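Researcher: Next sequence.
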Amino acid sequence: MRTALLVLVCLSLIFATASAQEIVVPGDADGDKIVSDEELEQAEKSFDDGKITSEQLDEIRHIHDNYPITIVDSANRTVTIYKPVERVIPMITWSYEPLWILDSQDKVVGVTSNAQKEEEYGWLPGILNKPVVGLFKELDYEKVTELNPDIVIVGSKAEEVEEKLEPAGINVVVLYFRSQETFDSELKILAKLLEKDERADDFISWKKNKSDWIKEKIERIDPKVRVYAEWSDVLWGTGSEGSGMHDVITTAGGYNIASDLQGLYPSVDPEWVLGENPEVIFFPAFTTAVPTALTGYFMESPENAEHFIEEASNRTGLVGTNAVNNRRIYVIDGFCVEAVRGYIGTYYCAKWFYPEEFNELDPEALHKEYFEEWLGVPYQGIWAYPLEG
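Model: Next structure:
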């Protein structure tokens, strides 16, 4: 009787669309979500009796040997996974590139309409063919449940999303992917969930090898160049310590004049910026946030960025600063600052901050290698302007 129950559990899970309001694990006959030694033995006997296939037995054995696994996510939440993650829905925009980095795009079963826009991630291979599950700030929970993902990746509203999806047996995982200080650890968490640990280690090693020599040079530079960064679409909106903007500035060897201000993304006064007299100014630009795109994969000309820099150079509060006087004012794509590619933003900034020390540095070459080797996408677009310091 027990063996028959095991066979029914295996077959119903592997071949049928899940509609149960709980997680069912192949090989788990007693419903505790864990495949015990006894249950594995029963599965092996079922295979010998011709009641399950070798593929089914392999899956049950794999779950027995490797699951459950437990992770602590970016919000310090403990999440336990009882079977391999085969179906993923990324709600937070920053989590798309990590999934492609880990070569797990085939596991993505639904995407937000934001991600499918060409100015965001419409250029990622296969993304336009994925079902849409609403906006990144407003999921279509009915559609998400219909697609039956094993996990949904969020950056906020974890309790709200979990309340909607937990009854359907869907795990919610918080992974921010917005800071270079935590990116490696978050990528390892995602890799553990997807059984892509080796791929994550290879990427982190590649990234580290590219950046170590920059760190060595920066450590010897003193004093540090004074930097002011402002969102292209938020007048006088900057980033203090803890923001991705701050991480990029400091990692590139600069001093963020807004580092000690209150709040992660404070607003400042023109008079304050003029008094701080930054030597370099740059504007992270998100293509969906301004009426006219300044950067992006499908941009062919820097004309918009040139016009934006010209207007910014004439603004009260910036006019008269060393940055404007010496024409050290730049535009960079927001995804190279406040997201996965922050370490690439560091390369552009290092070149801008210290052009003589980094005269041989080629940020575009690194960016191209990242696109083509890790995302599987031909490199193109305008991501930073002007390129030379």
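Model: The first helix runs from residue 2 to 15. Residues 281 and 329 are 5 Å apart (CA to CA).
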